[in-house]
Amino acid sequence: MPKPDAETIRKSIVYKLIFILGIDPKDATEHQWLNAAMLAARDLIAEDFLKTRRAHIDNGKRMVYYLSMEFLLGRAFVNALINEGVYAEFEEAFKQLGKEFSDICEEEQDPGLGNGGLGRLAACFLDSLATLRIPAMGYGIRYQYGMFKQEIVDGQQVEKPDLWLDQDLAWQFARPNKQYSIKFGGNVQNDNGKKAWHPNEEVSAWAYDEIIPGYGGSVANPLRLWTAHAGNLFDLDDFNKGDYHSAVRAQNSDENITRVLYPNDSTDSGKELRLKQEYFLVSASVQDIVARHKCRFPDIRTLADEAAIHLNDTHPVLAIPELMRILIDEEGIEWTEAWNMCCKIFSYTNHTLMSEALETWPVDLMNRLLPRHLDIIYEINAYFLNALRAGGNFDDDFISRVSIIDESHGRRIRMGWLAVIGSHKINGVAKIHSDLMVNTIFADFAKIFPERFTNVTNGVTPRRWINIANPELTAFLDKHLGEQDWRLHLDNLTKLNKSAADAKVQAKFSAVKKAAKARLAKYIETELGITVNTDALFDVQIKRIHEYKRQALNVMHIIDRYNKILENPDADWQPRVFIFAGKAASAYYMAKKIIRLINDVARTINNDTRIRDLIKVVYIPNYSVSLAQIIIPAADLHEQISLAGTEASGTSNMKFALNGAICIGTLDGANVEILEKVGADHCYIFGNTVEQVEEIRRKGYDPLGYIERDHDLRRVVNQISQGTFSPEEPARYNDVLQPYGDFYQLMADFRSYIDTQAKVDAHYADQAAWRKSALINIANMGFFSSDRSIAEYCRNIWYIEPLSEQELPASR
Ligand code: 26W
């Protein structure tokens, strides 16, 4: 179909409104107009999707399947319009309808399908996969209530259900013909020498497809999301007896599986639900992958030639024993052949060195829920350990360290180990992280399988993080970068290097930044009633709240600055607006306390008239992709201040730099590579290095020593722990800095952080110099396109080729 014009689109929208949604245009709300417009937009991508699928089948393309518990997609509508090249036409259509287009777009809610960087990375990757014409499919869960909606009440996080599915839209395609039965429990019996699983619980997985359009049109790939259905568990007898509660009890309990992302696992039933959820995702997905293969090819034995399955962190690792189960128990393939196939098919990305994310499951729980899988895991372990023993190079101590079964505190299954043993490639997400992975958590495995370990530095999609998020910067780049589209060739940004010092270019960029700051200021004013000065330096830290990310260190700087302004009010202070956003996991006590501290400090300082708006502290509730799209373009400075060695990569650092913000950060994660690209004059690095952090730990870290030696630090620590910011409850924060433990070494990095912040002020005072640095940041971000990351995965890990122009001609 040729690209439709505004008139055609207007007719299509009105048609959808009347004939699909059954609404009189005269009565339609903005939200209903959005739904109609989304249906009209979906027609365009649906056509691409069907053609893409046909091209995969006709050309026998090898496919990659990306399994992830999270996909933080953000809004779909504007993204689809930009990728399909019809944004202007839709805007014009709404003009003809007499509607404000931006109001319509604002009606869309973010899907609640993710939590952190891992989920957003998966979403950037889907965009790049489709854009690069890679035969690919994502698999995830369609959580009914997402993670949670965060409200800040009296300075504290309150979790409310995120009712994102309640919006009455039909964006996803329901696939009632794609249902798989997911089984749990029961036992394993020996039937004629063959192991047979006799489960005693069953729930149905139903598919919904979200279509992911690539930039430039023509290719669209599916993201298949599963939802749990209890099927025939409705008890008509109970119902007819009037016991309505019992009638649906079993149904409810099974459908809980896809209720929320990361159910609180601090209780036993929470843990069980988590494990069920993980198995539910992988079982439905692996069954689907096998079914798809059988539709296209005659022999299941060729699966490893036709399919790559990628495990996004350890959460979907049960896919390995699940595929083994299907190959052996259902397809009759002999054990060794099945195992060789698995090791070719799977690859795994590690996203964090934090021990909490390297999941382990109690053997008892696995035995109760998935006894056949436990068997298979034992067999995999025996096969692996026997081969090691046969090689004769490893002692018993080593063997017990690499065993999938951890015998040290109750018997537990180490899912990270299973991932490494069953994958042909294992990658970290930034150079420093991949090195640490090989030298720390997976050091033993790197001795056994050195060829398996590799790095793919993360990236972000410029389509969302510039084109959608920052229309002013988009126009600026379109004007300055010439013909070849930077959206597809982000390296083109390097052209900006030569004009970074040009006063005219700087002035234009300054207007770009100012517009974004004004937009954010308006949001803050409307949502929180706080007025901020757009000439102030916008200093931003937005990410999950976690001790390792050290939001508390940021707060310590704010308090120190507050103290110094009060001490020396007439000095030439650079006004700053400190902006925070992020959610704390619902069971994470200390992270929630940090949120409260930020809000208490904000309340105290924002209301202190002596500060004369030289400091404003703003906590923006309910962090989301859409909020990030407003905040990131407006930042002058971004805080990437994790303790060195703890942040695997970070991806907001890339988004900020791409939007012309300057980094203040430690030598951690992707900061290291950003520094390499932009140079030390345009990136503020402070604090101890990984080696120094380790040395401090080795020698015995003494946080009190730092506190005693540094007057400013002592004052800040005392104020926090003695209740300056919580006079109504002075002891509220006496545990928050852990002065006797300080595991994340805030005290050790405080001085260097404060001194570096002073350098930032001086730099910002010279606006021309600052703009130049900002432009140099943008110019050197080409490497951090997720297109580059995906090209590396395809080449080095998945061995996947894109659809050629012959296989699928460009449609528009
Ligand atoms: C409870 C299990 C668990 C633990 C941690 C689930 C999920 C998580 C995180 C949310 C995982 C995550 O988002 N990791 C981030 O992944 C990004 C993409 O690679 C990296 O840039 C971040 O550094 C890393 O923290």
TrEMBL record:
Any GO molecular function: pyridoxal phosphate binding
Signal peptide: none
Pfam families linked: Phosphorylase
Co-factor(s): pyridoxal 5'-phosphate
InterPro entries with a match to the protein in the record: Glycg_phsphrylas, Glyco_trans_35, Pyridoxal_P_attach_site
One GO-annotated biological process of the protein: glycogen catabolic process
EC number: 2.4.1.1
GO CC annotations, alphabetized: cytoplasm
Superkingdom assignment: Bacteria
N6-(pyridoxal phosphate)lysine: residues carrying this PTM: K655
PANTHER family cross-referenced by the UniProt entry: GLYCOGEN PHOSPHORYLASE, GLYCOGEN PHOSPHORYLASE, LIVER FORM
Protein name: Alpha-1,4 glucan phosphorylase
Species the sequence originates in: Bergeriella denitrificans
